[in-house]
Amino acid sequence: MALIVHKYGGTSMGSPERIRNVAKRVAxxxxxxxQMVVVPSAMSGETNRLLAxxxxxxxxxxxxxxxxxxxxxxxxGEQVSVGLLALALxxxxxxxxxxxxxxxxxxxxxxxxxxxxxxxxxxxxxxxxAAGKVVIITGFQGIDSDxxxxxxxxxxxxxxxxxxxxxxxADECLIYTDVDGVYTTDPRVVPEAQRLHTxxxxxxxxxxxxxxxxxxxxxxxxxxxxxxxMRVLSSFTPWDIAIEEEAASGTLITFEEDEKMEKAVVSxxxxxxxxxxxxxxxxxxxxGIAYKILGAVADANIDVDVIVQNVSHDGRTDFSxxxxxxxxxxxxxxxxSTVLPSIGAAQFIADPKICKVSIVGIGMKSHxxxxxxxxxxxxxxxxxxxxxxxxxxxxxxxxxxxxxxLAVRALHKAFDLDSPDAIRAEA
Length: 427
Ligand code: ADP
Ligand code: ASP
Ligand code: MG
Hints:
This protein is of the alpha/beta class. It is about 35% helix and about 25% strand. It starts with a strand and ends in a 13-residue tail after the last helix.
């Protein structure tokens, strides 16, 4: 008998019929003798609907008090899901009980809309499991030390599930979604994308952080820190397929590099439309300038991603950086009101229509010329690179948003990811 955590995403929970289907699948695992904890997301579209309602009522001022209420509102989608799933399981003849984050409790810090899980108390959950119940816990939400409801950021149910699995030392965390695993890139953008049978934890971390929304990055961080065995698989297979077959499907996140992994130089391509670029023009090239610009941005709690400072001419230089597109207006306002006057620069250029495309692969550690091949491929399609950043296992470029799909497809092909032969053998 194993302790298994299942996570079901919004599409998998998207209708009463799908919820019944999830219940049948979970009941099958429970009847096979496993202790089951299930973490569902809100039904698809629900979180967007709730946040749009909030924006409709109060679009302008998102101070801390307002952020608290956003979490109060957004967290309700998951409460509906867990109750519905418990009902569906009970209708299957399977005892089940649902809990919200605060009932467990899942304790987080107080950063509304992007809270981090600090601890999970599993006493209540274990008692229910011991009593033969399936336990269903809301994804995406928790409670801070003052009793306020928090949410974990978009896609946060992945993190809830892995955190529950880590806290309970579960034997495996299965992330059921609307694709049948992790692909070389988003299969909705490149139909030729290939499913990876395994992906290393490091690569998955990069893919998630660079925009592949198949897993929220924090969930991968948790899995790495606590070595949670984790697999991404489809919730759209027939619910009654054999458990052994189901348990071996999808994509396994691995923690050890094996030799086969070395073969693929580039394992995947990630992209993100969520960025906006700013260039402060004619900045005096003196010590402390980067701090004056980015310190002010950080103080406003705006995350900066890519940073480039050009060589100076006549004592002046241009300084560019990217932020999340949601922070575009706030960053513009801040530069205008505070930063430009404080550094004596005349103007800045703001571009919200950029994107970041990244190639990721452990094999890049041991191969030279991978980045230059990326640049060549982009130049052959006439795509101008605005910024570049690299690490040991990834190279990212910032380009105009209109070229995003073209770039992803060209790179996918050039790095042989279109062909099934390029994909690692089954582990
Ligand atoms: P869920 O609601 O189950 O959490 P998400 O929409 O958050 O599902 O994540 C699954 C989606 O992630 C897929 O439908 C796919 O479009 C997208 N995706 C992006 N990159 C990848 C990738 N490399 N492999 C698989 N899916 C990806
Ligand atoms: N419902 C939340 C969202 O839409 C959390 C999740 O689905 O993982 O972002
Ligand atoms: Mg998701």
